[in-house]
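Query form — protein RING-type E3 ubiquitin transferase

QUESTION: What is the three-dimensional structure of this chain?
INPUT:
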Amino acid sequence: MALCRYFAQGFCRYGDTCSFSHERGPTDQRRTVFAGSTLRTDHSVEQPGAAGKSTEICKYFLRGSCKRGNSCHYTHSQLAPSSDSSPAPQTAQSTSVGWDSRSGIPCKFLSFPGGCQKGSCPYLHPTGRNEVSKITDQLAASAISEQDQEKDDDFCRDIAGTSVQFNEFGHVAKISLPTDFSQARITGLAPRTTPEGVVRILNELGFHIGIECVRIWGENASETSATVKVEDPSFAKRLSVECQTSHAHLRVNPVRGSAHSTNCRKLYLSWHRATTTVCLDFGNGVIANQVAQKFNDGTYKYLGQLLKASSPRCSSARGGGRGSSHIPLRWSLILNGVPSDATPDNVLKAINAPNDRPRRVVMGEPSYRASVEQISLEVRRLLEEHGPLESLYLTPLSKIQGKRVKASALFKDEADAKLACSLNEKTMDILGNGKLTVTLLHTAKIKVPNTVYHCWKSCIDERSKTWKEQHLSFHIYEGAVCTTMKVEGDSAEDVSNARKIFKEISTPIVIKDGGNAIWDPALGSNGGAYQKLKAIENELQVAIQRIRSKRQLLYYGPPEKLPCAVRRITDMLNAKDSPSYELELKPQQFSWMIRGGHKSIEREVGRSVAVLDIVSKRLTVSGTQQQYESILAIMDGNHIVDTQPLSGTASEPLGTCPICFCEADNAVQTSCDHAYCLECFEDYCRSTADTSKEEFKIKCQGDGGICPTVFTLRELKELLSSSVFEAVLKSSFDEYVQRHPEAFHHCPTPDCGFIYRCTTMSRQPSAYTCPNCLEAVCTSCHVGHGRYSCAEYKDFASGGFEAFQQLKKKLNIKDCPKCTTPIEKTMGCNHMTCGGCKAHICWVCLAVFDASGPCYAHMTEEHGGIGLEPYAVDDDARAWW
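ANSWER: The structure tokens for RING-type E3 ubiquitin transferase are given below.
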């Protein structure tokens, strides 16, 4: 059968009814190879057959724009990397051609009559209908598997001018400062230079870096520029020197980084859905006008979507027959913006009235034929040209109400996200020359306890109306303990104002009366005073939090309700019936309390009468004089009590907080099935850094303190509000810096808060300018001495320094040999613990130890004792006697 010439040109519209052959030639065949979950196409490599054919790869073929096919004078070779084959070694002269990501996208022209006419098409050519369906399903699954939420927290924070990486338990794993990095801008690169090409050039110069360190910033007809950021402070200077000697055509300039950062890594993407036009033919002009009006006013909708109809046009129609003088007329109207997957039946279903039915429905050509999944892959490719992505979320079509497809992309680096904004209004061939819209999103996010959220709910609802008018996206995620609120938008100013509101919501006010914080020992327990405090909370619809370690009450809620809350709490405390007593516990008494003594007291006088504060080591009694005397008798041993030993079988009753030993209020349930009061749990987490003797970790205090569970940061983030969680990370960071004074120091400017990396003493002054307060400080001796060297400055200031040393000697004050924190010894043995870096010190010779045991052994061996008589030593020291 003869080959249809119109099919070969892509113009045949008869399809299977055509009387000519619609067969394709052998050059159109492709073989698809699946390697794991990755789609790759094994294209045939054309060998130079004709004389004069170059072995150089066609640059237009690599870009997918070569139209010569097999007649091209250059090689159309495209090799996909294999997972089981090792890469060939590269030399400086060799050219490595990477795998083209387009080979995983099915060719859109395969759906056209005549198929794809491009010789060596870089897009995927599946051989069967089932294969096309399978590939499309895989692409769809990969494109929409991301949730509309941020990726898991990597627990990296910007604190005190540094980037801090925490491990899974909250201990500082790494601290990176801006001065640890060096960034260089390279200009003069050849046009269309890729990041791989920049890496090869740097390798030739002796700099071995990864491709993730390179960003292509600008490209024009004559040259390309790139930036390279490496964790090496001297990289930019050394690269500049090397390029001047061996690559003089390249220009290298160091780039200063900004110390400020914002959360602007997210992009909002959208493009028009594929649409088509539908022509409706009517035999009556009145009906045609009536149908057009119903579509335009929304009476008729296509699957719930509004469509715009053109004014009907009258034209003659065939059908009068040969010799007939009557030529019938038809009125045609055009429906615009109809989804490309529309069918004539669906269009007819939109026209409800039987008398409005058209004679004929003619479907037009779609604006483009690529699927949403194919477009998302192409969009991802464009985005990744500007930097690596953390995620790309494609909104499912079932959730799209408008005429645009929506997606969001989260970059790993904020600079890459800002650079990718250049794709806004970019014309894309795959969209039928439609444009891609790209918007940079700013985000404000906060997590607060549910009680705090509910007391602010009316104000938040009112604010959300304003945010909606400002086109800001507002989301609320309410959990069992805490509620998360998030605002996103393209206006930095509007999002910044929303962040200020979030800060106002999460920042408490200390409840004071006449300048003094309101507190009463009765509030330390969950007894009558606390129950009355909760009643005031509910009546005023505010949140009041107890900070028992600081003996404070914190107020959350609208400011206008604060005066009323102060008055009600003051009146309640003044009118209480039972007096309150506080007992300072000695070490033996405190040990007896936590080993069952407190439970015995509760059995004797009742719950919530005696409250144990393990932080201050106090027992607060809120009851009668008789109850107070009974408790004293039990503690003095006049009453025989049944205490329980500290063992794995001795656990507190279900629902009892292991911190305050009372029934858990606003309970927090941990993964090890222990319940804490929310207030107790937050206070305990905050204080862990101050009480930890080794590396930072928050250990469960259940089962009498022997529960082996160490809370991970992921669990803590679920249980704590965002402000408390960030405070815990900050305390871990502060504790780490204090323990490593030889590596880090705080800026000496008051209230600055930034830190810097220490350097060793040198002849030349190592000046460092704090990026926060802009004060210069020497990183060796930690003072600002201008142009003087460290030795010159110390000699200059020796007069006052010597006088200060004499005063410290007179007051028995010595500096910690590790962090130089002044320590005063007033009593006790010669074992001292530095309050700054927690080092264990021998007071006689200032030897430093990591633990108390080796320190006591040293004092006994080297100094003949620890400075006290045997009867006065503590438990740690007695172990070495």
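ADDITIONAL NOTE: Residues 5-127 form one domain.
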